[in-house]
Amino acid sequence: MSSYKYIFFFSFFLFSCEKNNSIVLESSDPISVSLCDGSVVNSSISVVSFNRLSTTSLNSVLKLIESVNPDIVALQESYQIGLEVADRFSYCFYGNPENSTAILSKYVIQGIDDNYSKIMLNDSVYINMFNVHLPAYPYQPYDIRDRLITTESQAIYQAEQARGLELTNLIASIMDVQTQNNMPIILAGDFNEPSHLDWVSGAENPTLFQIDTMEFVVDWPTSNQISQLKLHDTYRELYPNPIIYPGYTWTPHHSIGEVHDRIDFIYYNPANDYIDLQFVNLIGPDNMSGIIIDDYESDHRALLSVFNLDI
């Protein structure tokens, strides 16, 4: 049986422990695992968005968490590893070990649905926390590289076809939250699509993939629609120039023909000035990362955002 010190909050699901200490759920519903005491209240709160890559070892993930010590981790490709990390560092956990996304937090988590939870900072103030992993394929920057897409309108249409349903559901959920409460919103994840703030005139990719001397500028739809919700892109807020600061999260791995891009984001809405952005950095194995981690295995650089907290 598993040795984890879990306290499970059940809601219409069953689980069983296999002999290999993994957890097999008989439902696709997320589970809440209470390992944090919820008493940590500081003047700032740190959030990491990290696609760990499903083959990344536990030790590699632990090194990242130990080095950065974030208050909240929005994990993608979490699966069973997320629970093990939560156990090691006494985070509260919300997610499904069979699914990609999970939230780990030093604060108590109130789970709402697959992608949305509330991080309880105290009895009256909380963060509306969203964590997403949008579809990766087809990946439009590769199709632009391969000349399967040759116009901006094609790129936008194909992106909408790839991620439109998930994006529509996400936007509807965020809009519901905005009408229901006035608490801060943080949206993190691997969006598998570049930002409209990055593919601008003079930036690397529009210049590299120009057609008939015209730069391939793209008003990417996902980031565009999120910005219309008045959510701020944390990296671009502090580093607004994509030519000087490309901020690539995809990928620290190098290969011939690779298209490097920024596809992992943390967005926020301060709401009544409970939080405001203080610091942003990339985490990875190389000099493009502000925080360098040895034996870093993921194919995404992680993103750290730190907010001042006034509650």
Features:
alpha+beta, 311 residues, 24% helix, six-stranded mixed beta sheet, 27% strand
| Rg for CA atoms | 19 Å
Distance between the termini: 41 Å
The CATH top-level class label of the domain at 8-135 and 185-192 and 235-309? Alpha Beta
CATH fold-level assignment of the domain at 8-135 and 185-192 and 235-309: Deoxyribonuclease I, Chain A
Mean pLDDT: 91
User: Total number of β-strand segments?
Assistant: 17
User: Which CATH architecture of the domain at 8-135 and 185-192 and 235-309?
Assistant: 4-Layer Sandwich
The major β-sheet equals: 9 strands, mixed
The percentage helix is 10-25%
Global geometry: globular
Strand content: 25-35%
Structure at a glance:
With 311 residues, the protein is α+β, with helices and mostly antiparallel strands.
Kindly describe this structure.
Helices cover 24% and strands 27% of the residues. It has helices at residues 58-68, 79-89, 140-145, 152-180, 204-208, 221-228, 234-238, and strands at residues 8-9, 15-17, 23-25, 31-33, 44-51, 72-76, 92-95, 102-105, 108-111, 116-120, 126-133, 185-190, 232-233, 264-269, 275-284, 291-292, 302-309. Strands 1-4-7-8-6-5-17-15-16 form a nine-stranded mixed sheet. α1 (58-68) crosses α2 (79-89) and α4 packs parallel to α6. The protein starts with 7 loop residues before the first strand and ends with a strand. The model is unreliable at 1-24 (pLDDT under 50).
